[in-house]
Amino acid sequence: MPARRSPRRSPARDTREDVFLAAAELFSARGFDGVGVDDIAGSARINKAMIYYHFEDKLALYREVVRDMLRAVGTQVAEIASRPDPADVRLSAFIAGMVTLADQRPWFPPLMLREIAEGAPRLDPDTIALMKTVFIAFHRILAEGQQAGVFRTINPVLAYMSIIGPLLVNAARERAASRPGRVDFPMFVDVPHPELISHMQQAALRLLAPEPIRP
Amino acid sequence: MPARRSPRRSPARDTREDVFLAAAELFSARGFDGVGVDDIAGSARINKAMIYYHFEDKLALYREVVRDMLRAVGTQVAEIASRPDPADVRLSAFIAGMVTLADQRPWFPPLMLREIAEGAPRLDPDTIALMKTVFIAFHRILAEGQQAGVFRTINPVLAYMSIIGPLLVNAARERAASRPGRVDFPMFVDVPHPELISHMQQAALRLLAPEPIRP
DNA sequence: TTAGATTAACTAACTGGTTAGTGGATAGTA
DNA sequence: TACTATCCACTAACCAGTTAGTTAATCTAA
Fold first, then answer.
1. DSSP H or E run through A129
2. Which residue from B110, B157, B187 is facing A117, i.e. has the nearest CB?
3. Cβ within 8 Å of A, B 39-98
4. Biggest alpha carbon–alpha carbon distance for chain B
5. Chain C nucleotides near the protein (CB, 7 A)
6. For residue range B167-208, what is the model confidence (pLDDT) as tens digits?
7. Closest protein residue to D15 using CA and C1' atoms?
8. How far is CA B11 from CA A189, B20, B72, in A?
9. pTM (2 decimals)?
10. Which domains, from first to last, does chain A contain?
11. Which of A71, A76, B60, B136 is most buried, judging by how many CB atoms fall within 10 Å of its CB?
12. How far: B69 CA to C20 C1' (Å)?
């Protein structure tokens, strides 16, 4: 029998990793329901069946992407929160860390915004627990800063929103703008990361400063 | 010529409106691709074909939801921006107005976050233009405040993100928390709107205050 | 003032295309 | 040979959109 199969892919490639990255990219851009398993297979240049060989199903693949990203964020911010530095320094590091993580995993912000928008109905309890970790790390910095007198009294949830909200929205906006087929929007300009970081650090410190702005 | 009649089988029920509201609710919760036309029909308790009787197709229905919402936001913030009040007063009104609008059209924030996350690839130029309107209104308040010396120099895009980011994320978070099948999250607590408004107004004024926070 | 004509509003059942997931075969490797 | 990685071809379910036909409110004319 003559072999009618197409040639095998070179073993140097890590198929599982290829699938993961393609899935992260696509889920980030179009959401869970907006991406077909065939799309992922095509983007990763592998056969669709390989996805089911390496992952249980589409949902498990999606969860793995989200879990990977939340694990990275969670461990990093927990480390920052437990440093011996003063709270305002740790807060600045928290912000810089978030920007860096969004740079390393650019699919993180849009994916996160979607999960917030729909109340994370697809995530398992373990992954939800990782989301909590990030808030808890922020809350620790805030509470210790308040005890030390460098931060004012403030609703922690609102403070958290005021910091991660702009970071997520800005990152998602930039990412969407950089994708092909983007929309012409005066708002869709590039902001250099150093400028973004110092803006957000300044905004956070102004938000939390104990004295009123105009005595 | 005889006047065109306006027959209504059962005047108590407006089918088109029912479809619109069901679609807004579902698109907001699950996104364009996460909602089937059958879902909308079922939720509105009408036959699926009626959706195609009242709207061109699924995409046209989606666009109508987004356009309605952006029109309301656009006209309201344009009106606020053109008031004779000082810039800081207008900025506070801008924030209060956004919260009120999110209250009247609760599907607005999640839908908007999704559109930001994916770069609004489904929206037509007219709808995009409405999005620009909102930014332009904010920009006008900011620029006039800077000229009057009540606001400091700041990147307008970052300032915009710093204000609408928390508003959108917070509203989406609250909405997701109130939906059935929600997730248990310490962050998912209710924040009363007056508290939210005054927090965001204070945050915005602190962000834009000309003097450094610690002289 | 009533018998038909007209039309908006509606329904049930269908169609053609798509999608998540599978079964089974093949090839490289230890 | 046994095991792992890979691909082809298929299926069952689903989903956007259509079609043919029904119902009832209003209009027209004798």
1. helix A125-147
2. B110
3. none
4. 77
5. 7-13, 18-24, 26-29
6. 999 999 988 877 766 666 667 788 999 999 999 999 999 999
7. B36
8. 49, 17, 26
9. 0.92
10. 10-55 (1.10.10.60), 63-208 (1.10.357.10)
11. A76
12. 34
